[in-house]
Amino acid sequence: MDGSVHSNKVLAITTETNAIDYLEKSYYFICQTVERPYAWKWVAISLHGALYGFAVSALIGPSWPDFLITDNKRTRAFKAHKHYKHIKQLRGSLIGFDNALRNCQTPKAMYKPANDQYPENRNVLQLTEQECNSINKLKDALRNRFMHFKPGASYFRTDDFPKMALDVLGVIYYLAMDSGHCYRLATSEKVAIEHLVLLSCIKLYEIDASVHHVSEPGQPTFPTPHHVSLCNF
């Protein structure tokens, strides 16, 4: 799936198409892990990118809030091309992964007042302890170590990777589909997200069942994270 605006001379990537591309790569590499355990590296990197992207998309809402940029300078529209009307060129740096997820759990940051196009939205990301642990493992034990690899040898047990990935996919699904905050997603993009998450979950359940020698793999579900205390990242 390629939802980016492009031509022979132009490639335009939005927050949403970038996140969907990461999600697509996650599924691709999940399918490779049985024959190539090394693919788990790219699963971790891709899931991290998808989660980060959809967290930012959920925080944007109908317009960019100042807190998304670390120096609080306003963004401006980049209008050099008609297809760029929804793309923002930022002054300053986007908030990091930890800050994005922390804000997604904060009512003030996630609150969207009603306007002519959208109803009021007070939905907030609420994570279970298991989901927090899985996200922290994805970020600290895997993605960051892969992206900032130090000379030497590292060893990773992969038998619990499928369950970690399933937890992260559940959070991604909530942010992108169930929270109602990703206003900029087109219908075709929502269909692609649902398709990719479903296929990824099915494959991960199969992998997990084979690793733990379960005869009947579980059925993929998309649980909405329930209320627990604020997860600190």
Model description:
- The strands form two sheets. A two-stranded antiparallel sheet has the order 1-2. A two-stranded antiparallel ribbon has the order 3-4.
- It has helices spanning 15-32, 39-60, 97-104, 107-110, 129-147, 161-178, 187-211; strands spanning 5-6, 11-12, 76-77, 88-89.
- It has one domain (8-60, 95-211).
- It is globular, with a radius of gyration of 18 Å.
- It is built from seven helices and four strands; from the N terminus they run ββααββααααα.
- The protein is mostly helical.
Key phrases:
single chain, 233 residues, mainly alpha, two-stranded antiparallel ribbon, two-stranded antiparallel sheet, 7 helices, 49% helix, 3% strand
Outline:
This protein has 233 residues and is mainly alpha-helical. It is 49% helix and 3% strand.
H and E order: EEHHEEHHHHH
State the share of residues found in helices, binned by percent: 40-55%
Q: Supply the helix-strand structural class.
A: mainly alpha
Rounded to an integer in angstroms, the radius of gyration calculated over CA atoms is 18 Å
User: What number of structural domains do the residues give?
Assistant: 1
Write the layout of secondary structure elements.
Elements (H helix, E strand, L loop, with lengths): L4 E2 L4 E2 L2 H18 L6 H22 L15 E2 L10 E2 L7 H8 L2 H4 L18 H19 L13 H18 L8 H25 L22
Antiparallel strand pairs: 1-2, 3-4
Helix pairs in contact: 1-2, 1-7, 2-3, 2-5, 2-6, 5-6, 6-7
